[in-house]
Amino acid sequence: MTGSPDLQLVEARWRLVLGRFAQNRLSCGGAQGYDAMDRALGYLYGREYRGRSVRDQGAPRFGGDEASVFEVPEWIRAVRDLFPAETCEVIQRHALERYQMQELVTDKRVLEQMQPSYELLKTLLTFRGMLQGEVLELARRLIREIVEDLRKKLGREVRQVLWGRLSKVRRSRNRIYRNLDWQRTIRANLKNYDAARGTLVLEQLHFFSRVRRTSPWHIIMCVDTSGSMVDSVIHSAVMAGIFHSLPSVRSSLVAFDTAVVDLSEEVGDPAELLMSVQLGGGTDIHRALCYCETLVASPTRTILVLVTDFYEGGAPGGMENAIRRLRAGGVRVIGLAALGSDAQPAYNKELAESCVEAGAEVAAVTPRRLAEWIGSIIE
Fold this sequence. Notes:
By secondary structure, this protein is α/β, with parallel strands linked by helices.
């Protein structure tokens, strides 16, 4: 091909975007360093053409099947060597979510090379039942690493919301200027006013304290573990662990499909909790709410957070009746159609509206918004 180096580079990049079927339309051939990228991308994205009888008339014929060019471990290694980290994460996510390459998480050699990411966490949890031996132990370490990163990130946001406000009730001996209670300080020192100098002499200083909740609030996370709820399950486990770490707040987590499992003893370790959750199965919200009722000791100090898509498989009307009983006793019931960084819900709107009529408050929220919501209830 003749032309400027810049034009060759542009054409080579378009060749990568369009794939091998554009070979006869572009004359770039393969710019240096792009052949390897083309092979790596073709290994994954060439799957789009399988089973579709897609042909490009006049396109050069290729022998064999591109998928056999690489073994999966070598392909992962090539992707990491050829592309920046951000691009690797995108390719990895497509392989897991779009093309269901289960071997990425069931082969120890491949898993060792995977970039830790939220998408990898979701896939490991989804296929946890297929993991055994050394692969399972490696998956546990990766899950713990990814969950810990998520917990630290969300923990900073939640503590800022729940601890970062000034308490108008408790006082502090910590003499920090930004916490100075000016109104109380002025009232306490009015007797020291020097009329001759027109000056108020401050002998006593009073300070607010930072909020550290002492009221025995109980937060119950009741989480639907059906397959469509994986994002909400992950964020619920992490949020329950964060609530557990707050002073004077008790946190419980109940997971359910058609059965109910109380995982409250594990809320302090979200990674281990997630490894205990079985994703998939049916849904019996009524049974789960009935169990949660047995955990309520002080109704007016209890917040029940029901995380579900509201597709009920239990007794008709049972869920609404359970919510009415909880509300009549003084329990605040929050229904979350989605809990996550995007909080994009897919849920049964008719049944969610029935829950609202029964006394629940229903929304799809981010973890920070949930913390703000619970903070306003506690205050």
